[in-house]
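S.,

Sequence below, as promised.
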Amino acid sequence: MFKLLIYHILFCMIVVVTSASFIAKTPQNSFNQPFHPTTKLYGSYAQSINGPGHVANIELNTNISSINPDSFEYVQNIQCGQDGIITLTLSNEAAFHDIPNWPSKVIILVSDKWKCFGQSTTQFYLIGNQSIDETKRQVNFTSEPCEVLKWTESYSFDLAWDQSIKPIKKRTKNLYLRDFDQQTKIDLDILFDSKTGSSSQPNFKFSIGQNNISESLVCKNCFTKGSATIGLHVSGTPLNITNATISISGNLSINVDVAVSTSVTIQKFSTPDIQIVEIPLTVLNVPGLFNLGPALILVANAKVDSSLTGILNTGGEISFSNFQFQASLIDKKTNVTGFDKPQFKSHKLSTDIKASVGVSGTLKPQLALDLSVLNGLVSLKTGIQIESTLGITASIGNGNSCKKNNQLNLKSTLNGDLGFFVQNFVEPIFTFPSLDLGSLCL
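The prediction came back faster than expected:
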């Protein structure tokens, strides 16, 4: 089942997690824009300057005037000095004539790239008492820390994939741009070894601590591979979220190969969901503005519907080459494409089982997203899960499609489903058509 999780705590294993801060974007052709504060405080940030990537936009509607210096090409430098003085260096002479008309108090957004007062995070200050030194092309302000939410009437946050981003060059040695040579899509590879094309953790156990089962029933070659892009929109007031949507697009392949090998009888059983691995991914963030911490989680379970002795190997792969999922977190409406025609591939069947039996193994890859905006004003935990089940039935006797009644018929199927979960609301959306991976008479 596909699950969207909100306000649900996910337990993470301890690993080193890298962080990729977005780059503050300056609108093109903004050099001639008047240097005026408004009541719309806007910031735009890009994941990469070297090509396509995610772009984040945040807007605060403030009840006093506010300004983001990164929105103007002629702001060359911001320095935060002693006694709380903030100094802007400007290359546009006309901007110096605009500043005397500013209100006595203005909210200023100082992005993390300027390391204001030694802090590598986005900061907000109330500034005033400006003094201009045109010979140095600088303006100085007194400042005091600002709790921006006290001055915010409403907000909106958007994260989207932008395919059109072109590489840009640094304009000046004073402009701090982070240069990323990285995969900007979200990596959906779990237990996949790109060098071998198979699992990096073969033969993981479907069961823990059950006699005769843990070592005998394994996922011989199980992994996922793919990539995705993410879209998010959240808007509202400091007291209420009025709109929240999520979209995920990408491609995904799930490989499931199950192996049973036992010289003693395994009794009928089923296992609960077992978390095989959790992999925190690179955190996407603008320090002080938003933080999106993705993680990949792989859950599995297995079932045997009667006693079993012998050897059995089978498997298959299900792929979604171009899927899209959209959901509203408010009214719970969904829209999905690309899941109705998955591609299937069957793997070799082999067994020496001598009696009727049913065995199934299920993989549930999850992409979990932990979003925080404005230091916790908005806190959402969301995620997707696609469930893929490999089923194997071995039957003997009349009606098993074999020529002889004493022959064993081994049949393998692969299926899965897609669903939607918001808080306590669960709605199945789509069940993939069951595919017959093949049968064998022994």
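Residues 1-19, 167-182 have pLDDT under 50 and may be disordered.

Coffee later?
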